[in-house]
Amino acid sequence: MKLLFVSRSTPFHRLGGMEILSWALAKAIVLRGHQVEFLTTGITGFLPGASVDGITVHALDCAAGRYSKAWWSKSRSVFLDQYADNVDLVMGVGGGAHGVLDAKIRGKCRTPVILQSHGTPWGEIVSKLAVRSPISWAGAARNIPYLVRDWRLGHYSGIVSIGPAVDEALRRKPMSKLVHHTPVTMIENGVNEGELRFDPAARSRLRQRLGIGPSTAIVVSLSRVILQKGVRESLVGFARLVSKRPDVAYLIAGEGDAQPMLRALAKDLNIADKVHFIGPVSRADVPTVLSAADVFLFTSLRQEGLAIAPLEAAASGLPAVLSSHLRLPELVARYAPPTEPDAVADALQATLDSAPPRNTTLLPKRYSLEHATTRYLQLFEETISRR
Predict the structure, then answer these.
(1) For labelling, which of 150, 164, 283, 306 has a CA lying 20 to 30 Å from the CA of 120?
(2) Which pTM value belongs to this model?
């Protein structure tokens, strides 16, 4: 098969879950003998038609990493000129292929177009309104136009929901009215276990660099450092854990605008000496950060589609403490209401007291990249056959 992935952003724009997962899927498909090209927004320093990991990247001259009128127009035009008669199927990552779909709606091509849905505008609105922040509430208002734009959902050849939360959202009102009769298939996000395997040597090196002893229990969070991700709630929950178990440390990995507030809060809670802000982490360094820890903490306030970080932690052999609304079937995890710090601390304590040996993965097969790739290829072949 020859496939075209259409996305506003890639790992060369930013390292978000959507970007990481779609690129990993494309790499895995190429390794199985198929062709994949990426059509995306502008990337500074990228040569036209550059190839990375066996994937040709076609970056258009429009605002990087953003939806815009220029993106919709240029992606549609380039698709019709260069791809409409040369690819078997298009997959839009998020709403990336809405412009391409418009060409199909107008009868200018017959190429099947599938949407990989990482969430819904309605879910984003609900999530942002749940955060006690005027900035977040303003962000909810900015999602309303995306809800209107999703009238196109009923015109896709198929929709892939990347987890139970997204699947349920697409099947209930108001989104079900927009999806109409488009078939929805749930294919859960998958991560590469081999790339995330526990590394005892890396564990020792990072602990030594941070001045953390081998017997100290480490809690780690890996996400964007923004209020919606529940980073404030994680820090307060960790502070309650310190009062019960002093020999602990907390690694906060990632970047975001909440970091100054968290640093000040750590001082107010008298735990600044136990909290280490790692900053942005490259893909190559993710296994090291996870290997250094003993439990993964993710108290997101969002209605997450299917967050990648808990899956990566499981692949590294880390048990998790997650928000009670983020139920991930089969994952080794305890759940706690993110706004109840004592419950978060109790879950961390119980997890540390019963942590399994770190010499094996805890990732269920359903969340493996290999399993996801097989499911996607089956769906692509079935969709092409109905063309």
Answers:
(1) 283
(2) 0.90
